[in-house]
């Protein structure tokens, strides 16, 4: 019996060693996440619903994004905010107000403010940096999130100019999509949670089209963003990412 | 002059009609301000201002139309301050061809009620590879927008809404691209009397995270200004502007003066608490209350040489905001202090409460003896 058990262990080891040898490191997982998330150009339309208690606000917008200088353009289309436009280039943000037909530069410290009063900051929505450029990653283990087996990875900032000092990310093992993200402040306080769902395959990448954000500093507050349309790596005219375009 | 205005508006209305064959997007806004104020006799008086706004937009691939028409109905004490009843009509007093005295039309129950139509904007903007052309009634805004902008075309301030839109002017504007964040803008606003024609240009750009620009503007009635401005971040937001004003031939020494602004802003608690401070200097401003010139037509804000503006805005959540605005005359230390709150009742439906308190008396600029002690404003606003 003992002989049989030792043989079984040996066989198991032979099977397991190659498996572990080919398991991914945290860096490789993050690289795959980045490859899936980071785009050359992007076009999107979305609906944002801000819920606080039993009250809701609805915003609609569309926009474009471009890698490189990290440029993003957004325009609101719901009646209350119709024609309000944003242009973000690197860490700078400009807003166009249609009533005044004027463009205003927003101070950098305001980028952490909730966009249109939501739980999502301008930084959250407009970021397009590769995680591996800003964070050191550690694979903690594996766990289930909404019945999907996920990698559990801790990300710690290796540069100063990041919005969140630490992130805990649960990444779908099969599709390399972060399904749950926890964002922490420098002191270790949990600031926000993000849940991503409704994953669609667009081209050769998987894209979550529904995002649920909770700012833990606000009570009974949640913001949903649902992308009704997303296209990647399409041709977007350069002039979209100019100040002049905001007035159009 | 009235006929010019009348025909200008007719022209713009026909412009609107000519583009309205295409599908226009229509949006609107209703705003009602109920104002209770203590006048100089310390009596409480009531005013009501109802504003109906109609915004028409149409956008095609290479052009855009924007129209903004407003109808105002003024009632109560505000009418007394606008119109002397001894004059024949509101039109004579205000020079506004579209001001209607509803009391004259509908009788006594509409006494002290005026209606006014105003076309704030009506322009077509054409986008071409060499730049964007705008023609129609548009507001030409040079410099960095905000309080105490030396390049502001219209320096009147509405204390009940500091961000209230300014009325446009008939102009042709051209904006040329010079880069992603840089360009040149120039305009001309012709008048029937050629010497009253306004024109100007601005070069703007961005360097090291700072927006900056230079402006030359020749306003109508022989007023010129030239200067520079910047806005950027040094951990806190900073902005500044300087302008030199002069008449066409430097002949009016009283009209040649410097004007400047320096401001900072910072936010706390991830943008929930925002604070801003601006210092304003005007060389042509008075340094003594005896020298205040209430009828001055110089291109400046207020009466004195130095002012301080402070703002604190608290936005705890997406439905509620509170703010405090304060203008201080640094010569006589009078002030106007304006706390306000705003609450979103439902999508597009806001209610606001604003209190304005005058700190000062006698012959100071913000004087209770001249303006009244305080006012309380209740605002309902619905956007469609």
Which descriptors apply to this entry?
heterodimer; A: 248 residues; alpha+beta; 13-stranded antiparallel beta sheet; 5 helices; 13 strands; globular; B: 384 residues; mainly beta; 18-stranded antiparallel beta barrel; 19 strands; 53% strand
Quick recap of the structure?
Chain A is of the alpha+beta class.
What does this structure look like?
The complex is a heterodimer of chains A (248) and B (384). By secondary structure, chain A is α+β, with helices and mostly antiparallel strands. Helix content of chain A is 18%, strand content 47%. Chain A has 5 helices and 13 strands. In chain A, strands 6-5-4-3-2-1-13-12-11-10-9-8-7 form a 13-stranded antiparallel β-sheet. The longest helix of chain A has 20 residues. The radius of gyration of chain A is 21 Å and the shape is globular. The N and C termini of chain A lie far apart (81 Å). Chain B is mainly beta and 384 residues long. Chain B has an 18-stranded antiparallel barrel. Chain B is globular, with a radius of gyration of 22 Å. At the A-B interface, β2 and β6 of A face β2, β3, β5, β11 and β13 of B.
């Amino acid at each position: 019996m003992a002989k049989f058990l030792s043989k079984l262990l040996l066989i198991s080891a032979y099977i397991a060693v190659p498996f572990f040898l080919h398991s991914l490191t945290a860096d490789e997982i993050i690289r795959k996440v980045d490859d899936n998330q980071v785009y050359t150009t992007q076009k999107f339309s979305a609906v944002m619903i801000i819920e606080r208690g039993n009250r809701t606000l609805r915003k609609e917008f569309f926009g474009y994004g471009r890698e490189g200088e990290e440029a993003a353009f957004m325009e609101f289309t719901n009646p209350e905010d119709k024609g309000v436009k944003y242009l973000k280039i690197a860490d700078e943000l400009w807003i166009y107000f249609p009533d005044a037909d004027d463009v205003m530069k927003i101070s950098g410290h305001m980028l952490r403010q909730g966009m249109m009063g939501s739980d999502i900051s301008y930084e959250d929505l407009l970021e397009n940096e590769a995680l591996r450029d800003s964070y050191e990653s550690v694979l903690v283990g594996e766990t289930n999130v909404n019945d999907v087996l996920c990698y559990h990875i801790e990300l710690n900032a290796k540069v100063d100019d990041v919005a969140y000092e630490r992130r805990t990310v649960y990444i779908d093992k099969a599709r390399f999509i972060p399904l749950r993200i926890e964002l922490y402040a420098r002191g270790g306080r949990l600031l926000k949670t993000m849940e991503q769902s409704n994953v669609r395959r667009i081209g050769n990448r998987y894209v979550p089209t529904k995002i649920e954000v909770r700012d833990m500093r606000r009570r009974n507050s949640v913001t949903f963003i649902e992308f009704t349309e997303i296209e990647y790596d399409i041709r977007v005219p350069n002039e979209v990412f100019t100040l002049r375009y905001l007035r159009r | 002059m009235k006929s010019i205005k009348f025909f200008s508006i007719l022209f713009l209305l026909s412009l609107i009609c000519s583009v309205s064959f295409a599908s226009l997007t229509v949006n609107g806004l209703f705003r009602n301000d109920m104002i209770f104020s203590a006048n100089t006799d310390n009596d409480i008086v009531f005013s009501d201002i109802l504003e109906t706004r109609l915004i028409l937009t149409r956008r095609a691939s290479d052009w855009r139309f924007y129209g903004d028409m407003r109808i105002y109905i003024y009632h109560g004490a505000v009418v007394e301050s606008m119109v002397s009843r001894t004059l024949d009509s509101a039109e004579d007093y205000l020079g506004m061809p579209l001001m209607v005295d509803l009391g004259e039309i509908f009788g006594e129950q509409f006494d002290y009620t005026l209606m006014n139509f105003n076309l704030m904007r009506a322009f077509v903007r054409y986008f071409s590879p060499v730049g964007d052309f705008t023609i129609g009634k548009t507001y030409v805004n040079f410099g960095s927008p905000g309080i105490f902008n030396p390049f502001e075309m219209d320096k009147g301030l509405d204390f009940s809404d500091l961000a209230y839109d300014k009325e446009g002017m008939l102009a042709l504007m051209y904006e040329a691209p010079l880069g992603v964040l840089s360009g040149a803008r120039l305009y001309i606003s012709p008048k029937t009397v050629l010497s009253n024609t306004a024109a100007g240009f601005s070069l703007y750009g961005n360097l090291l995270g700072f927006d900056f620009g230079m402006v030359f503007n020749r306003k109508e009635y022989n007023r010129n200004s030239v200067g520079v401005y910047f806005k950027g971040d040094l951990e806190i937001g900073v902005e500044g502007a300087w302008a030199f004003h002069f008449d066409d031939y430097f002949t009016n020494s009283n009209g040649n003066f410097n004007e400047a602004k320096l401001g900072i802003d910072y936010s706390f608690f991830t943008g929930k608490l925002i604070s801003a401070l601006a210092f304003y200097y005007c060389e042509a401003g008075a340094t003594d209350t005896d020298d205040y010139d209430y009828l001055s037509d110089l291109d400046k804000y207020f009466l004195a040489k130095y002012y301080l503006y402070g703002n604190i805005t608290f936005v705890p959540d997406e439905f509620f905001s509170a703010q405090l605005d304060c203008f201080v005359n640094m010569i006589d230390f009078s002030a106007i202090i304006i706390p306000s709150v705003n609450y979103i009742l439902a999508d597009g439906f806001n209610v606001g409460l604003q209190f304005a308190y005058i700190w000062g008396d006698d012959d100071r600029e913000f004087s209770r003896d001249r303006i009244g002690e305080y006012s309380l404003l209740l605002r309902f606003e619905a956007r469609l």
